[in-house]
């Protein structure tokens, strides 16, 4: 299984915003430079994080992006789903339904993975990097 590069950038951007201090505003150019990525590409990712309510966008010359006040409660799963969506990673081609043992096992595995990612928050990450 593989998450998109956008998810990687989203998670690293959130970490960078946590490290930079949660109340500091960062321009898209500074964030893009930090990750050596196109500002246009990163802007699309940041827009998804804004829509998900994880960061806010402040307009103007001194504007940019900053974490919302509830940043510590944001889980890895929240960030992943903001970028990737909530669809299952596995799509059974044979449509056997819930009685399909392959589908059942894969969905149980996904559920365990989602539980783990949901249990890991930005606050946990902040503690680990200090």
Automatic annotation (TrEMBL):
InterPro entries: ArsR-like_HTH (IPR011991), Tscrpt_reg_Rrf2 (IPR000944), WH-like_DNA-bd_sf (IPR036388), WH_DNA-bd_sf (IPR036390). Pfam families: Rrf2. CDD domains: HTH_ARSR. The keyword DNA-binding applies. Keywords: DNA-binding. PANTHER family: RRF2 FAMILY PROTEIN, WINGED HELIX-TURN-HELIX TRANSCRIPTIONAL REGULATOR, RRF2 FAMILY. This is Rrf2 family transcriptional regulator. It comes from Paenibacillus campinasensis.
């Amino acid at each position: 299984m593989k998450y998109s590069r956008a998810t990687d950038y989203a998670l690293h951007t959130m970490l960078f915003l946590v490290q930079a201090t949660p109340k500091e505003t960062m321009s898209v150019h500074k964030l893009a430079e930090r990750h050596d990525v196109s500002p246009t590409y990163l802007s699309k990712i940041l827009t998804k994080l804004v829509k998900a309510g994880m960061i806010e966008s402040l307009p103007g010359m001194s504007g940019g992006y900053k974490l919302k006040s509830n940043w510590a409660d944001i889980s890895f799963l929240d960030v992943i789903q903001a970028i990737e969506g909530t669809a299952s990673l596995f799509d059974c081609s044979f449509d056997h339904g819930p009685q399909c043992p392959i589908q059942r096992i894969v969905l149980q595995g996904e559920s365990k993975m989602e539980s783990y990612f949901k249990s890991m928050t930005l606050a946990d990450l902040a503690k680990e990097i200090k």
